[in-house]
Amino acid sequence: MSRNFAALAVVASSVLLRVSAQGASVTYTSGTPLASKHFDYPDGIPYRADPDDGVRGTQFGYNLCNSTTENQSSLCQTAFINALDDFCLWAPPNGPETIGDTEQEEVAWCTKPGRGTRVIPEGALQGVQFMKTPDYLQVVGFIDQTKINMAGDDFGGELDPHGADFRGNPLGGLVYSNGFPASNGDNNTFIQAIEWHNFMGGGAFCFKICDPAGAHAADFCQHIYDRIGCAYNAPNNAQNGSFTSCEGDDQDFPGVYTSNGQVLTYTQPPESLGVISTLPYQPRVPASSNCLTFSSADLFAAAATTTASSSASASG
To answer: What is the annotated signal peptide range for this record (predicted)?
Structure first.
């Protein structure tokens, strides 16, 4: 669950962040919202996307990640959502911790090596559904969250590129994909996902990234419903023990539903009013098609090899 910080005034200062983006030199002033920062991958990635030192301090990790940062202690904060066997999740750098206590510090844990990140340990992923729709890519699943530094009893919360101070959770966290149409099927062409949300906790997760070329990226990847989880923000048919990759229809915008022929928008109550025990609607689960089923061993063999090697190195 995102922390509630008082609204912070964005004050530009003399601190500048200069990067190469879209093939040109771009300068961002201090206080620029994370969702307004665009970096080409890999050549335009700065060491840290967030150079500021604000109320929440400085960015915990870094975005410039490569073979020298790739290990189970990596502080890489550049994540990817590409396919059923190639995605990352945000989780604590140390543990066991809760998402609520570490949301600004989360690092990337990925299914395979090659990104300069930590690798999700063998046996952690217990069921995953990957969905490709006209407007977003989404991965939903079940996980032994204790293997990625989360407390076993943590029901977690939401990570997204916004937050009350617009610096994102985690601070400076960037997300990329080679699965959007703009990549033209080239696995080496990565597009930055400007709008995304990742819910972690309760032994489950969902991570949706919205196509920046779409007209409703911010609507499909809403960030204001942090208290109602995956079922309402990323409706899905994920099954524990099953690993599937599907194409699908778009969901309704999170929080938007139809009742008696009228389109309505749900307003999430503040935490001060207590636990949300009922909601006025059930989300529509989008239709899926062309689903392919795989075994965990087929998908995550690289993770098993990598984490085994890391364990051997640590014990040696």
So the answer is: 1-21
Alpha-carbon distance 85 to 211, whole Å?
20
- pTM for the complete prediction? 0.90
How far apart are the C-alpha atoms of 87 and 102, rounded to whole Å? 21
Gap between the Cα atoms of 132 and 32, Å rounded: 31
Q: Does a structural domain hold residue 10?
A: no
Beta bridge partners of 4: none
Q: How far apart are CA 128 and CA 72, in angstroms?
A: 22
Asked if residue 7 has pLDDT above 90, the reply is no
Q: In the structure encoding, which two tokens stand for residue 69, read together?
A: 């940062």
- When divided into structural domains, the chain yields a total of 1
Q: Is the dihedral of CA 106, 38, 57, 48 positive or negative?
A: positive
Residue 197 inside a domain? The answer is yes
Specify if 40 maps to a domain.
Answer: yes
E strand or H helix that includes residue 245:
strand 243-248
Per-residue exposure over 3-27, b if at least 16 CB sit within 10 Å of its own CB, e if not: eeeeeeeeeeeeeebebebeeeebe
Could you give the angle at the alpha carbon of 237 between the alpha carbons of 232 and 239, nearest 5°?
120
Taking residues 12-17, report their average pLDDT.
33
In this structure, the number of other CB atoms found within 10 A of the CB of residue 40 comes to: 18
- Domain membership of residue 213 (yes or no) is yes
The per-residue pLDDT for range 241-263, each reduced to its tens digit, is 999 999 999 999 999 999 999 99
Gap between the Cα atoms of 304 and 170, Å rounded: 27
Q: How far apart are CA 221 and CA 162, in angstroms?
A: 11
Structural domain containing residue 177: 16-267+281-315
Strands of the sheet containing 107-110, edge to edge, are: 118-119, 107-110, 86-91, 78-83, 174-177, 191-192
pLDDT digits (tens, 9 = 90+) for 273-286: 999 999 999 999 99
The tokens for 196 are 């995304």
